[in-house]
């Protein structure tokens, strides 16, 4: 036992260091920790002075005579031999560097390709185009052959692009998983759609919030649902994904869905299954605020306006010859637009856009229909035209709200504020319509002016009824968000007057926190003069002491992590339909998910790590 412990294997090895004077004394240089003879390129086994000197004296005695020690001639000879060694080394390293540069360029191009939702085969097309451009533009340059060779070395084939996108996706996913592990809390939004090959795809996005109250919104994954799409199927896929990627479920705060029964069903919906699973923490869940607003916009009625408008548009555009003649007619009259728009019920902005276009082309439509001996009696009815103008103005207000709710990075506070503002606008519109003041309905005002009509012709009862129906729908639809509105308002303005007990109870119930401790924290916070002087800071809660106000800070972090809509999922489905079109149905689920991740991710891939982790070869 003692012999083993004190044996040669445990003997401390001595470290030898290269001395600069050995270059001129013994014609030796240090290359990557090895001592190499400049004359014969031999290496010594142990880098100590006696071994270096012995090699020089025994193998190169003539150099001591021909190049005397300390002479200028000897210094020049050492410099020549060092330069020759460097040239020899670069001869072997240059191809490797060139291959590494070509591979890095291939990764960067694959990232660019994915960001623009291009197919994998387009890499080879671009490479050919680059070669043609370089050949024409750089033909008079001396280094044109070297440039052409460098372009040909870049690997841009279809299979290579597919592998590059997968590697980029894995690199980006690694960064995301790291952030999910270090973030304080996160929420998810999920929605389901069908791709071009009839596979149901479930999109997942996460909104992470960190200790400094910064946040990130990132794409998690696209989960294919091969058979049924019940709530339990969605739950199983999501749970398996979280377990497989080791995402910390205890940090999950809320789930935002599209409001479909499979998502929000009380007994067997996805959210119900998550709440029944002890691995999931207590969850908040919301029906997407944009979906609810779109549903409100669809039930306004006014079919006596929409049906004739859609009918006239379809009659003009139904037959190819008539459609061509109409466009020529508009061109001859130098109309504001070159064509009418078709109505698509599932598109959020469709109704307002077609009504606006129809109104702007109304004189031309009348003339065209008159030239074909078609009945235009309804288009000349002032009461119907006023209804058309009112509906156009009303849908424009709804579309403005929809635009305010869309976009990446929208906080739940922004969305609640937008909806509350719109409710106030509806109250104002109702009061003014009763008084026949149409200042906020420019199309109605313009229609009255153009037709020299009196405001007495306005159907006030019908307009008031429509606005009342909208107010009622908005009151019923957004009750989910009314529960957290007081908490969101307090986080936005922590020094507002509040009922401390009621607010603490609400936040404790919503976010599973100690309401009694929170009461004391609210009172202490509102009495803190130093914090009050900093309330205008853009990131106020990052200035609050986490230890002293732990419950309030947790609540603020959880509010910051909340999604208000499934906008990112809807945007990803647009990308999915573009990437996996009817011309590209063979795209696998893995490649589809990888392509979307690279396309929408805000992370920058680590190109150097990707290149260093593989054996680089130039293109064939």
What's the layout of helices and strands?
Layout lengths: L1 H4 L16 H5 L1 E4 L2 E4 L11 H11 L1 H6 L5 H44 L6 H16 L6 H10 L4 H25 L2 E10 L5 E10 L5 E11 L5 H15 L6 E6 L3 H4 L5 H7 L7 E4 L1 H10 L4 H16 L1 H13 L17 H11 L1 H10 L10 H24 L6 H23 L7 H9 L9 H18 L1 H14 L7 H12 L3 H12 L2 H4 L17 H12 L5 H13 L9 H12 L6 H6 L8
Parallel strand pairs: 3-6, 6-7
Antiparallel strand pairs: 1-2, 3-4, 4-5
C-alpha Rg (nearest Å): 36 Å
The parts where pLDDT drops under 50 for at least 5 residues are 1-8
Which percent band covers the strand fraction?
5-15%
Structural class: alpha/beta
Into which percent range does the helicity of residues fall? 55-70%
How would you sum up the global shape? extended
Folded structure, characterized:
It is a single chain. This protein is α/β, with parallel strands linked by helices and 620 residues long. Among the domains are: 65 residues, no CATH class; 182 residues, no CATH class; 81 residues, no CATH class. Helix content is 59%, strand content 8%. The chain contains 28 helices and seven strands. Strands 5-4-3-6-7 form a five-stranded mixed beta sheet, with helices on both faces. α12 packs antiparallel against α20. The N terminus is likely disordered.
Short description:
By secondary structure, the protein is an alpha/beta fold. Helix content is 59%, strand content 8%.
List keywords for this structure.
single chain, 620 residues, extended, five-stranded mixed β-sheet, alpha/beta, two-stranded antiparallel ribbon, 7 strands
